[in-house]
Amino acid sequence: MKRILASVTDGKGFDIGLVLLPLAFLFVMSGLPLVYNVVMSFQEVDMFSLGTFARPFVGFKNYVDLFAQPETRPILVNTALFVSASIAGQFLIGFGLALFFWMNFPGASWMRGLFLVSWVMPGLVVGAVWNWILSGDFGVLNFFLREIGVIEGNIFWRSDPHYSLWAVIIANIWLGTSFNMILLSVGLSGIPKDLFEAAELDGANALQRFFTITLPMMRSTIGAIIALGLIFTLQQFDLFAGITSGGPNNSSNVTQYWAWDLSFRQYDFAKGATISVIMIVFVMLASIVYVRSTRHEVRG
Amino acid sequence: MSDTFRNRLMFAVALVLAAIYLFPLYWMYTTALKTGSAMFATPPKFLPSDPQWNIYADVWQSRNMGRYLWNSLVIAFGAVSLIAVLGVGCAYVLARYRNVWVEIGLFLILMLQVLPASLMVTPIFVGFSQFGLLDTPRFAVILAIAAKSMPFFVVLVRATFMSVPMELEEAALVDGNSRIGAFFNIVLPLARNGILVSAILIFMQAFGEFVYSKSMIQAVELQPASVGLNSFMGPNTNEWNNIMAYATIYVTPILAAFVLLQRRIVSGLTSGALK
């Protein structure tokens, strides 16, 4: 007993204790729910069997039913569109801004940091603000678009099925751009300056320098950022709750909102769990890419 | 001469870019101050001609914001304390050693960091209800947030511990400190700033958390401000000035804290997520 106590205060036991306690917590709070999720996706779960573990197993019935539903395919397409459009927008605008702030001038780093306010705001507040900006008759975005002459009549961003998903995408691009920019700035500042000086002496112009030095040197950073973008866009829930609630008629619904909607609006917990399992597998794959592209840090 | 001109030009362009990017924020602040009719004017007014300063007190009263914000604070403080108590030690050990076990632990933590809350909430809700945790819904939300955010905290704080020179700790051990003594007297004070910044980041996230609170807290008296904002925004609402006033009261403290601590937060964030 005394030996154990001594080890905990002054030996290996100290480290093991420090690391085992949080890992046990994470195992109970994240690991077990993950397993439970998979189990539920093979069970029949309704309001009455919610309180018991002994539920009938139904094999792959939930999966088969899910893919037989008419809304499944459009929602999967929406998710793919939401993810790719959001990542493309965030990355391109973020890269442009990062390149701009990379041309050093007094106050650059402070101004750059200011952009990150979009990232620390509660997601629901961002949703509320954009909900108002995107409003059909009185929205300020429609006003700007009319003034520039892009549109003639008002676009009903939130209630027109053709635009509702884009309403959320616009808000999400705004939300994620700053984070992309900050991480890209870190990557840019890691490129040795003498490479550019050498290229300039050799007569390479700005465009050539960008494609032969900047982009190749940024490859692992870009990989990590795209993977992180995929992870973050698949986590995006608050904007859907704040702007369209997945509507009208599922036209702006995506899997991560649908899973919640099935469980907590329609009380179909088995279906909710089934979608969750499928999407978590996707997220896990993305995170393996992310971990691999940051492995220099992990491996030391 | 041309150099200062270039710098000024660049700064002006940066200002314009920031103004465009931060316009939604400005629009939130101005809309809150508009009267009901000025809000729906076409073309929209970009400066409120007749600012309604008492709207904040009105919304605070009518929406019972004190209670909502108190619940947000309880949840955020609870989650941050739990995460800090458990996560700091974990980050320390993961920073101090390099072997296969540490790599496995890091990999697991990075994988847990990416699980979307809206997908994890189904099994967590069902499991928690079976163990009776939903009788104390705020505590249940604290547990769920802690599990979600702790991996991120560990990654950030580990980067801080990596920058504390190990020689200092070894010197303390030679001087007769125990491991616990060296940890609390030497390592922890040196890493204090990094831990604090990471804790503030986690606090901001937990303060705005929505999915878990919306799903697990049924009683209105226990709901945080994010859920309160959500129930304020009905499908056909036209109280946008009130909603924006609510949003203003909700985010202004966060924004103020962010602007004050900006430099530290940005560097803490980037050191953990990349490099």
UniProtKB/TrEMBL annotation, chain A:
InterPro entries: MetI-like, MetI-like_sf
GO annotation, biological process: transmembrane transport
GO CC, one annotated term: plasma membrane
Topological relation to the membrane, as annotated: Multi-pass membrane protein
Record carries keyword RNA-binding: no
Subcellular localization(s) per the UniProt record: Cell membrane
Segments crossing the lipid bilayer: 12-36, 75-102, 114-133, 163-189, 210-232, 269-291
Keywords noted in UniProt: Cell membrane, Membrane, Plasmid, Transmembrane, Transmembrane helix, Transport
Family to which this protein belongs: Belongs to the binding-protein-dependent transport system permease family.
UniProt name for this protein: ABC transporter permease
Naturally occurring in which organism (per UniProt): Sinorhizobium americanum
UniProtKB/TrEMBL annotation, chain B:
Membrane topology designation: Multi-pass membrane protein
Keyword vocabulary terms for this entry: Cell membrane, Membrane, Plasmid, Sugar transport, Transmembrane, Transmembrane helix, Transport
A Gene Ontology BP annotation from the UniProt entry: transmembrane transport
Transmembrane segments: 9-29, 68-94, 106-128, 140-161, 182-207, 243-261
Localization annotation: Cell membrane
Domain of life of the native organism: Bacteria
GO cellular component terms attached to this protein's record: plasma membrane
Keyword Cell membrane: yes
Keyword Membrane: yes
Cleavable signal peptide: none
InterPro entries: BP-dep_ABC_trans_perm, MetI-like, MetI-like_sf
Family according to the record: Belongs to the binding-protein-dependent transport system permease family. MalFG subfamily.
Role according to the record: Part of the ABC transporter complex MalEFGK involved in maltose/maltodextrin import. Probably responsible for the translocation of the substrate across the membrane.
Protein name (database record): Maltose/maltodextrin transport system permease protein MalG
Lineage: Bacteria, Pseudomonadati, Pseudomonadota, Alphaproteobacteria, Hyphomicrobiales
